[in-house]
């Protein structure tokens, strides 16, 4: 993994996430919740599909921490912990999935984003003292996951064009 290019890619996606997918931009309001894709988690998912588990763990922590820093709610370090654990698990699941098929990318991103966001929403609500709104959190998580999963195959295709600067071996990208 070439860390400099990964950092540039992550920074670019963080800027896109915070600038384009904001209220009034490409974010969509559904029942009082602003639905936006989690671009940082999608970058992490891409890395989990193609790099070693130990590198993905560190990258997941960094991506989650960056996402925590720009987040308006939650606790610093919570997304970092959730990202690194979820992405680390994906590195082991990739042996039984086809990483380059759009349907697989869609489904894996749907499940992972939903799980990470659900835990994050529930934890944030409980820690802030707002009480447990499980169905509301599940709805918000599902909407974010769906938006992220729809964008995932396109984003992964663009990132696969950068396979050489990122350090992805051509044989790995065909599996």
What helical percentage do the residues reach?
Answer: over 70%
In whole angstroms, the N-to-C terminal distance is 18 Å
Structural class: mainly alpha
**Amount of beta strand:** under 5%
Explain how this protein is built:
- By secondary structure, this protein is mainly alpha-helical.
- The protein has a single domain (3-24, 38-165), classed as Arp2/3 complex 21 kDa subunit ARPC3 (Orthogonal Bundle), CATH 1.10.1760.
- 72% of the residues lie in helices and 3% in strands.
- It has eight helices and two strands, in the order αββααααααα.
- α2 (39-50) packs parallel to α4 (78-93), α3 (53-70) runs antiparallel to α4 (78-93) and α5 (102-128) crosses α6 (134-160).
- The protein is globular.
Which tags fit this structure?
175 residues; mainly alpha; Arp2/3 complex 21 kDa subunit ARPC3; two-stranded antiparallel ribbon; 8 helices; 2 strands
